[in-house]
Amino acid sequence: MLHKVLIIDDEKNMRWILEEALKNEFEVKSVENGELGLEISQSFQPDLILLDDQLPRKNGLELLPAFLAQNPDVPIIMMTAYATVENAVKAIKIGAVDYLTKPFHLNQIKEVIKRNIGTQVKQQPVIIGESKIMKEIIQQIRLVAPTDSTVLVSGESGTGKELVAKELHQKSNRKDQPFVTVNCAAIPENLMESELFGHVKGAFTGAVSNKKGFFQLANGGTLFLDEIGEMPYYLQAKLLRVLQEKSFYPVGSDTPISVDVRIVAATNRDLHEEVELGNFRMDLFYRLNVFPIHLPPLRKRKEDILTLAHHFLDRYKRPYQLDEETKTLLTSYEWPGNIRELQNCMERMFILSQGGEITKEHVPPEIKNKITHSHASFNKPADEASLNLEEHERELIENALMKTKGNQSQAAKLLGITRYTLLYRMKKYQILK
Predict the structure, then answer these.
(1) Which of 35, 113, 117, 324 is most exposed, with minimal Cβ within 10 Å?
(2) What is the DSSP letter of 125?
(3) Residues near 284 by beta carbon (within 8 Å), at least 6 away in sequence
(4) Which domains does the chain show, CATH number per domain?
(5) How far is residue 275's CA from residue 285's CA, in Å, rounded to a whole number?
(6) What are the tens digits of pLDDT across the range 98-134?
């Protein structure tokens, strides 16, 4: 199978020259601007990207971080007709593997491509965990991945929901097909239908050409709908129809398009509660909830904290050592930001330690302060600490109920807990319904 090269250059002649020069040795696609490049790279899945610096709207240096984020394992070579040492250094610092000045000999570009293509080893998703609950989740992933069943992944922010989605894709029969991620919370409501299903030219002001939506880009592969709880209610019915009929209409078109897509959805919301509140369709919830996987917060799997910490530090491929006091601090902290917070913390500590021994001096002060405050509370007499905690919790619940005029679902949402947890607490503290 030929390696894939994606060319992004606004000069039509340059695109033609490069395509002709490379087509016998590589599978080549070319586009004229960065936006199209970002769109097509999800479905084309290139092994190397040639990115021109002088592009309309946004230049190559401005677009480079977006391409690296979307294609973290793909080498990117910058091309420019206006080379400066400053820009070359900046491109390399951002993450480009090389920086070529036009005009260049075609043999030179071939040589550079061959030297860089395949050099960056793709990092497969890794689910880390020695705790009983994580071993059970890993087993669930192993069982459901080879099927086409829809999976709903739930859990707090930072618990690794996208990692689970990627693992499901990599262990499925669709692994060689596109894996497309859609963050439903990040797309403006008025653009979401077009982004999901695409549109035809003239469908609305600004639709100057046909555009494929995420469903078409993911055809044959996996579509990961992150933060599905944020999807507007009116669009939920259209999504449900696609899941049922496996076809849809692009905006402005009366011709249906059939797709074969495996859906993995994720949410940090309690969708049971969202259904009760009328924010999420019950029929869509049951269509998505075919195989639920719930990721526990890090504070519920503390035995995995040091395993994860070592995993993040091992990425630097440099010697390090965690002293015992630091280990105690890491396992005593509650990690409200979960795995994402732990990963950022380990990066910061490694930098501060300059690759040597990592001690408590390198632990961020906000973490040490929270642990100290927590220990101070627990050092109070047991009766006093318990009384203060219960009084505080009861007061929070009563205030939430007062603010929502007794609406339990809204009060639970305000408190960040489920309605069932709220009912349990109300019964415990004998708070009248």
Answers:
(1) 324
(2) -
(3) 236, 237, 239, 240, 243
(4) 4-116 (3.40.50.2300), 132-294 (3.40.50.300), 299-378 (1.10.8.60), 382-428 (1.10.10.60)
(5) 8
(6) 888 888 888 888 888 988 886 554 455 578 888 999 9
